[in-house]
Amino acid sequence: MGKKRVLAFDFGGSSGRAMLARFDGQKIELKEVHRFDNEPVMVHGTLYWDVLRLFHEIKQGIVQANNAGGFDSIGIDTWGVDFGLLSKEGALLENPVHYRDRRTAGMMDAVCKKIGAERLYQLTGNQLMEINTVFQLYSIVQNRPELLRSAETVLLMPDLFNFMLTGKKYAECSIASTTQLMDPVHQQWNPALMEQLELRPSLFPPIVKSGTVVGTLTEELCRELETEPKTVISVASHDTASAVAAI
Questions:
Q1: Is 239 known to be catalytic?
Q2: C-alpha to C-alpha distance for 184 and 178, rounded to whole angstroms
Q3: Sign of the C-alpha dihedral, residues 227, 228, 234, 236?
Q4: Set 77, 101, 159, 239: catalytic member
Q5: Which residues contact 229 (CB under 8 A, 6 or more apart)?
Q6: Contact, 32 vs 18, CB < 8 A?
Q7: Residue 123: how many other CB atoms lie within 10 Å
Q8: Whole-number Cα distances in Å, 213 to 14, 29, 128, 208
Q9: Are 225 and 206 in contact (CB under 8 A)?
Q10: pLDDT digits (tens, 9 = 90+) for 207-237
Q11: pTM, whole model, 2 decimals?
Q12: CA–CA distance from 156 to each of 26, 65, 122, 192, 208 (Å)?
């Protein structure tokens, strides 16, 4: 059996790393090829993820992994709940806002007043936390509706990085489960809940299972990084789910 070689990116709240893994059918060998900071940036009172810098670090990880012997596929996991908004043309409308930002203050109470806290839990199975995606989005509904009118797609962070790598838009199931907008029984979005909160269901891309091949690196990226096309896999992309899978 030939060796399988994968490049895994893990993003935490303050740092990230790229790990090159080789599997020979019996054992896994791991090598760290790149490590980098992940520091949010405050601008005019809003705390953002420095997403373009993070994508630069992904590209550096790809280069370093190729220099360290090469790989066949890429997988990315990140924290949950945070997201980017894309225009119809696929442009990022603004940097993703950090879950520690205060824009969600009072939003959990506002949503629970509309839906009911017990009902919201029954529909989604999520612990009610003010940082959850549903409350972040509802803050935009309440305070910046023009931003959502300009948006075509909501992508959670690992799905956003996968889009930057491949141009393909999907939502992996484990990361989608952190939004408090997914039906946990059928593992699909809950459009009725979205509509109650004035969110267009069309904003959310199809949910795929962990392990789905979402595409390959774009031709433009391959030229820039001087690499062969690599397969991008939508792994268990919520970092907790990846940790459980590793065990």
A1: yes
A2: 10
A3: negative
A4: 239
A5: 216, 217, 219, 222
A6: yes
A7: 20
A8: 28, 23, 32, 9
A9: no
A10: 999 999 999 999 999 999 999 999 999 999 8
A11: 0.95
A12: 34, 25, 23, 20, 13
